[in-house]
Amino acid sequence: MSNKRVKQLIEGKNFFHVFQPIHNLIEKRIIGYEALFRSQLFDAPEQAFRSADSYDQLFELDKLSVTNAVKYFSNFRLEGGELLYINVFPSTVGRPEFVPFIIDLVDSTSLRRGQVVIELVELEAIKSLDDLKYNTRNLKDSGFKLSIDDVGKGSSSFRLMIELEPQIVKIDQYFIRELPHSTLKQKMIESLVGYCYETETDFILEGIETARELEVAKQLGVRKGQGYYLGEPAPLEVKS
Questions:
Q1: CA terminus-to-terminus distance, the chain
Q2: What is the pLDDT of residues 19-72, one digit of tens each?
Q3: Where does the EAL domain start and stop, copy by copy (predicted)?
């Protein structure tokens, strides 16, 4: 991957976001949206961020992505109080300048800090858990919400659930695949739902793609979910 394309991505801000709804499955309503990064320069978001990282531009791209997601979301019509979930790399969140940056950004919009969920993605090794713990604690103390994405996908996600005490965990879509036919996956989901209930942590099941998957998930106690069956990523409706 050439540095030229990374420059086009960052200096030209050659990217955009679409938003996928997150549902309360019991009340049958949208409670938030995940901002999903897209760029015509790259086949997949991960490829864009890995390319930026190879030229020491990951932090810059992450900041630009967060800025675009927050400003875009604040300019569109919402039913009232929906949360914005923003994917951010742990190395970005762990930097000392991140907390003042996100505070200034959100406070410059119509959003409340409590509407913004910083969602840690599991696409890199965590270099300093102490820095990450310190900053995530500051984020929560400042009114933001913390989520861990794709729990169960990486080797450290369950450890982070304990170390960082997030208000929200999103379970990797591996667990929803074949869920209606897998007793082991059903037991795992029940166990995680129970853990989250005991620790007052919101549990979101990702990747729901069929009516049967949704039905089984609800039978297992899952109250919140996301996936193509519930709603595809798309632009948001402009405020009138």
A1: 42
A2: 999 999 999 999 999 999 999 999 999 999 999 999 999 999 999 999 999 999
A3: 1-240
From the candidate CATH numbers 3.40.630.30, 3.40.50.300, 3.10.180.10, 3.20.20.450, the one assigned to the domain spanning 3-225: 3.20.20.450
Closest by CA position to 26, among listed 232, 229, 215, 227: 215
CA-wise closest residue to 39 among 66, 5, 63 = 5
* pLDDT tens-place string over residues 102-151: 999 999 999 999 999 999 987 777 888 999 999 999 999 999 999 999 88
**Is the pTM for the entire model greater than 0.70?**
yes
Distance between CA atoms of residues 238 and 196, nearest Å: 35
Q: Which residues pair with 30 in a beta bridge?
A: 23
